[in-house]
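User: I've been trying to design a sequence by hand for this structure and keep getting stuck. Would you show me what you'd pick, starting by listing the structure so we're on the same page?

Assistant: Good idea, let's start from the same input. This is the structure you sent:
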């Protein structure tokens, strides 16, 4: 017998959901979703939704034509159960049902002036080392993909952990934490425009560094 949340997904959500990938390097767009589903966020491959009756679960739906669901399913299989990661409870043809992680992303912590304790950085470091021990390659780990909950660190997005190339994002974020995250900065809200300037500057610097052959 199917679980109630699975019936809701397959008979109510998916038949009515309108999700598109309009630009290959921009987040997917949800044009329509049935009530009372809510959109929690979207990335370049998929959108994440939740139903208020099943608040401890999220559904990650891949947009038509976007790859990666097989790889992400395998990532969760390898990770198994770990306190810093979600778990995959069900895998469909174009969607995953995941245990919901709650908290505040490190990006939002900077934006709101919420101090990020070093324990959070340590937890994420240990979680990424665990992923490596499971034959995975942590990739695209940045401030919007990691989260803080009750002073502990969580890794939210593992969709690119099957990629093979080296990704310096987390190491660079840790370096910035050590070099620039002064005590007087920690409770100072940083405007979105300033964070976007930092993000765009980092992307240009990373591209320059790659052309110089240093990564």
């Amino acid at each position: 017998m199917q679980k109630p949340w699975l019936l809701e997904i397959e008979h109510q959500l998916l038949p009515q959901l309108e999700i598109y990938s309009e630009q290959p390097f921009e987040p997917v767009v949800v044009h329509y979703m049935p009530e009372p589903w809510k959109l929690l966020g979207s990335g370049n491959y998929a959108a994440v939704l939740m139903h208020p009756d099943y608040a401890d679960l999220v559904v990650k739906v891949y947009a038509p034509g976007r790859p990666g669901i097989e790889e992400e399913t395998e990532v969760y299989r390898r990770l198994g159960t770990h306190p810093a990661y979600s778990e995959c409870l069900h895998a469909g043809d174009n969607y995953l049902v995941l245990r919901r992680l709650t908290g505040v992303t490190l990006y939002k912590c900077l934006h709101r002036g919420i101090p990020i304790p070093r324990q959070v950085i340590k937890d994420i470091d240990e979680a990424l080392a665990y992923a490596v021990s499971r034959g995975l390659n942590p990739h695209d780990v940045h401030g919007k993909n990691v989260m803080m909950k009750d002073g502990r660190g969580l890794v939210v997005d593992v969709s690119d952990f099957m990629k093979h190339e080296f990704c310096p994002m987390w190491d660079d974020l840790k370096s910035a934490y050590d070099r620039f995250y002064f005590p007087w900065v920690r409770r100072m809200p940083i405007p979105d425009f300033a964070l976007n300037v930092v993000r765009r500057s980092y992307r240009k610097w990373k591209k320059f560094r790659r052309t110089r052959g240093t990564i």
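That's my pick for every position. To get oriented when you compare it with your attempt: The CA atoms of residues 78 and 134 lie 6 Å apart. The longest strand covers residues 57-62.
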